[in-house]
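U., I forgot to send this yesterday:
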Amino acid sequence: MKENNLVQTNEVLHFASGKTMKNRFMLAPLTNKQSHDNGTLSKEELKWLRMRAKGQFGLVMTCAVNVQANGKAWPGELGIYSDNQLLGHRKLTENIKAYGSLAVIQLFHGGMRSPKELIDEQPICPSDNEEFKARALSLNEIYQVRDDFISAAVRAKKSGYDGVEVHGAHGYLLAQFLSSEINHRNDKYGGSLENRARLIFEIVEGIYEACGSDFAIGVRLSPERYGMVLDEVKLVAQWLIDSNKIDFLDLSLWDVFKKPEKHSDTKKSLLEHFLELEYKKVKLTVAGKINGGKEVHEVLNAGADFVAIGRSGIIHHDFPVRVMNNDSFVPEQLPVSISHLKNEGLGPKFIEMMKSWPDFIKK
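Result:
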């Protein structure tokens, strides 16, 4: 259980790996579709992330970065499955760290959510999936996925990243393994929760061994949707904490203040459910409708160690500065203009993507 002490947003945070975060603000991993088709960094994506470091996010996280070419889930996605992609990553980490921010890369695989027309082959999944026309992975292919996550982390460390986040949320491949609705395997990667969580733990263990204890490791989980069960996700979260291999747990809650949708105890919010865990040396960050200064302080004072900012980080590259200077800061009201987003460092492809978000951009 987190101690309920008042937290100042500019307080320094120390991770078990020895990494230091200068304040309590993390830029959430945000899809932006600005990378090149071969998975290399574009100048537009570099500008977008550099501005967030300049805006004083203590931890700047990349978008979800695929660890296998067949894990691509959308066009313009950054990759780290090839050494040919490392030049851009080195440039990115240099720019982020130049402003004193931690540079962290999120590693993922789209699994059944990797469209066939994008990857030019049948998507993969823990089990055959008719809805997504995905095929089941063989055991050897699972081992290759595991090894490619680890290899991606090694490339990340070589590129200057301070750490990685393993993406086990939002219905992508690792979350597909966690889900009993999607994962129908009858081997050591299916059936019991321990088996369904096995791949995540093997990846975390492998990264820890390959990159060393001075390299930060985080894991992102989401407790609802995509076949997730709140009590199971809480249990996996506690196992990760108890493993002594991770620095932080990143919970994507959609709305940190909402009550669970399917649970016997709906008196507590999702955040309160996860604050019941014993965190030991592991730090907790949460994402979901933390829009302004009021919400930032409410979440930190409830017991989270730092906040993951998405939407408000898009609207204001310097959101941390604004909140540190004004506890009651309220972001620009939506919808915002295209010119505003251009000024905030979003490129044409990112702006085009944001048009699909309801009521985000002025007509």
